[in-house]
Specification:
The structure holds two protein chains of two kinds. By secondary structure, chain A is of the alpha/beta class. Helix content of chain A is about 35%, strand content about 15%. Chain A has ten helices and seven strands. Chain A has a seven-stranded mixed beta sheet, with helices on both faces. The longest helix of chain A is centred in the last third of the chain and has 19 residues. Chain A starts with about 30 loop residues before the first helix and ends in a 7-residue tail after the last strand. The mean pLDDT of chain A is about 95. Chain B is built from twelve helices and 16 strands. In chain B, strands 2, 3, 4, 5, 6, 7, 8 and 14 form an eight-stranded mixed beta sheet that branches. The model of chain B has no long low-confidence stretch (mean pLDDT about 95). Chain B is globular. Chain B starts with 10 loop residues before the first strand and ends in a 5-residue tail after the last helix. In chain B, strand 15, helix 11 and strand 16 form a beta-alpha-beta unit. The longest helix of chain B has 20 residues. The chains are: A alpha/beta, B alpha/beta. At the A-B interface, strand 1, strand 2, helix 3 and helix 5 of A face helix 3, helix 4 and strand 10 of B. Strand 2 of chain A pairs parallel with strand 10 of chain B. The structure holds thiamine diphosphate and iron/sulfur cluster.
């Protein structure tokens, strides 16, 4: 029998990003945290930042950032990641510094820290994951919870008369002078994932070019606490969530034009 | 506002608050973050004026909550970093201090304390003793607490605070008040002589050429948090054993021994000199470290004297630690003033009473 002909594998079109640690994910099925981690890792690779990055992990489902992204990571108290990142960046201006925060983290307890870091034009990148609920603590109301949405602390649905309105952070932060870049993206379809990656790249470039604070808000799922199947959760993001939280770029600084 | 001294070892006349800044700069601190509060504003003002020219960073935060987290980030970067505040601001820092103790991050925190609780007043006080030495924030931790009583010590103890914080990887606090902060006296800006040079192999500097590092306080796996707590406990025990400091003042043959720290001790020295002139054998043990508390010294002293007179600018906080150090509770007397400095006359009067004499 003659030796089998050498079959060449097709050229790999997709590989695991180098900055993503090869471990099993602890996130729930259908949760977007994992996809968002991957996008961040890919952008770290793209700009060759792995050895000069310091990540700031928050409190919430994403606290285990250090188990997934192969860079130095400091953990911050709930909501304080932009302040911790400020301390890191001021001490090491040559390093690439990013925070990774949930909506409870950034839009509730940490509102003051994010607004002031943005207003100072702190040269940082913020990855903001909006899943309209508190994931880790079991699905309570977040500042981003939609009107009518039932959560464990809005059992009759969020009512603006008692609970206020869902807050649009990307728009709010775009209004601040020190913000260099603010965008909202989603990762529910391959096309959205490509766009999201583009936004994260922009956000990285803003920091690399010393432009000020850049933030990318991700519309994300929490099938577990929404009580939905993963596919229905995707539909919710594509439907009611992106209606209230429009995708797009709300601010993009063209040059370092602080005056 | 005086610039950092060109030639060290020169006597300079300055305020206590400024001496803290000189000590910090001498010890290599180039990062300061803070938020204004009376009576410590000279410190951020000095740092704002001088750190930029030294190639450092001054940043005024939006709150003390943010301040302590700037500190956390800079400390995790392996740099010497300091903040200062007063009671209400220190309360807001407790969250971050607990995280820093848990994450084993060094920093120097200055509390030029005022009267509380609540907004209280801006009068000098030692009402923050419990908060400083019992941890303050959640979870059960300790701060190294140093209590200067002179401008000279505001300088030297700040340098020591940086060394101890680095040596034990834990935040250290300078506990002062408006009087030591605002008073001016000449002091010698002795050169900084590091107690030990501490490498920081844990610092987050980007993982070039090495494995990634984490600085964190969350421990969820198995019994990791219990292991971590015992590790911290052992560290605090080492600090207790090796770092307690106290000054003995005129204790030879003393029958009445004052126990006081900071400004209360400063004033007591005058009263002790007056008492000695009247033939009353008074002296003082002055804790310089409040954590670790000089417990052995208090224990020995209580056996030798007739009375331990604890003097504090509060209604009695350190006196509880003094009681813990000796079973001879009937020998302990207390003089407290919550929101003012006790005068030497008041202290002398109390000494006379305890000595059974009329003034
Ligand atoms: C000071 C403080 N308050 C409350 C908590 C409890 N807590 C942990 S995670 C969390 C909510 C996190 O929600 P989010 O930021 O939206 O992240 P997610 O879990 O959804 O990814 C809360 C309230 C805490 N750790 N610290
Ligand atoms: S609880 Fe929600 S946010 Fe957390 S991992 Fe599960 S799905 Fe994701």
């Amino acid at each position: 029998m003659s030796a089998p002909a050498k079959v060449g594998f097709p050229k790999a079109v997709y590989t695991r990003p180098e900055s993503l640690v090869d471990v099993k994910s602890h996130f729930c099925p259908g949760c977007h945290h994992g996809t968002i981690h991957k996008i961040v890792a890919e952008c770290i690779d793209r700009y060759g930042l792995r050895e000069k990055t310091i990540g700031v992990a928050c409190v919430g489902c994403a606290v285990f950032l250090y188990d997934y992204i192969d860079v130095d990571v400091v953990e911050s108290p709930h909501g304080r990641a932009p302040a911790v990142a400020t301390g890191v960046k001021r001490a090491q201006p040559d390093k690439f510094v990013f925070t990774y925060q949930g909506d409870g983290d950034l839009a509730a307890i940490g509102t003051s820290e994010i607004i002031h870091a943005a207003n100072r034009g702190e040269n940082l990148t913020v990855v903001f994951v909006n899943n309209t609920t508190y994931g880790m603590t079991g699905g309570q109301m977040a500042p981003t919870t939609m009107l009518g949405q039932k959560t464990s602390t809005t059992p009759y649905g969020r009512d603006f008369r008692s609970d206020g309105y869902p807050i649009r952070m990307a728009e709010l932060l775009a209004g601040l002078e020190g913000t260099a870049y603010s965008a909202r993206v989603a990762v529910s379809t391959p096309a959205q994932i490509r766009k999201a990656k583009e936004s994260v790249r922009k956000a990285f470039e803003m920091q690399i070019n010393g432009m000020g604070l850049s933030i990318v808000e991700f519309l994300s799922t929490c099938p577990t606490n929404w009580g939905m199947k993963p596919l229905d959760a995707q539909k919710r993001v594509l439907g009611e969530m992106s209606e209230y939280f429009p995708l797009g770029v709300f601010k993009e600084r063209k040059q370092a034009d602080f005056a | 506002m005086s610039a950092p001294p060109a030639s060290p070892s020169k006597r300079i006349l300055t305020k206590g608050n400024e001496a803290i800044c000189l000590g910090a700069v001498a010890a290599g601190c180039r990062h300061y973050y803070g938020y204004p509060i009376t009576p410590q504003n000279d410190i951020p003002e000095y740092m704002a004026a001088h750190l930029p020219e030294l190639g450092g960073t001054f940043l005024q935060a939006e709150s003390e909550v943010a301040t302590i987290n700037f500190i956390l980030g800079t400390s995790a970067s392996g740099k010497r970093v300091m903040t200062s505040s007063s009671g209400p601001g220190i309360s807001l820092m407790q969250e971050g201090l607990s995280y820093m103790a848990g994450s084993e991050l060094p920093a120097v925190i200055v509390n030029i304390s005022r009267s509380g609780p609540g907004l209280g007043g801006i009068a000098p006080s030692q009402g923050d003793y419990f908060q400083a030495v019992k941890g303050g924030g959640h979870g059960g931790y300790r701060l190294i607490v140093l209590a200067p009583h002179s401008v000279q010590e505001m300088y030297t103890l700040t340098m020591l605070a940086f060394d101890l914080a680095d040596k034990y990887r834990t935040p250290a606090m300078i506990l002062g008040d408006a009087i030591v902060g605002q008073m001016k006296e000449p002091f010698v800006a002795s050169p900084y002589d590091p107690a030990s040079t501490v490498e920081k192999p844990w610092a987050l500097t980007g993982c070039a050429g090495r494995e990634r590092r984490n600085v964190k306080s969350l421990h969820l796996k198995d019994n990791a948090i219990e292991v971590h707590n015992w590790k911290l406990y052992e560290k605090y025990e080492r600090i207790r054993k090796d770092e307690a400091r106290a000054e003995s003042y005129m204790l030879d043959g003393a029958t009445i021994a004052i126990v006081a720290f900071g400004t209360a001790a400063r004033v007591s020295k005058t009263a002790i000199q007056w008492a000695r002139k009247e033939g009353i054998a008074a002296g003082m043990l002055r804790p310089i470290t409040l954590f670790p508390f000089p417990g052995r010294e208090v224990f020995e002293l209580a056996r030798k004297v007739d009375v331990l007179l604890v003097i504090e600018m509060n209604t009695g906080q350190m006196v509880e630690d003094v009681r813990q150090c000796t079973p001879l509770h009937d020998r302990i007397a207390f003089l407290g003033k919550p929101c003012a400095m006790p005068t030497p006359e008041e202290i002398l009067e109390r000494i006379r009473q305890l000595a059974g004499r009329k003034g």
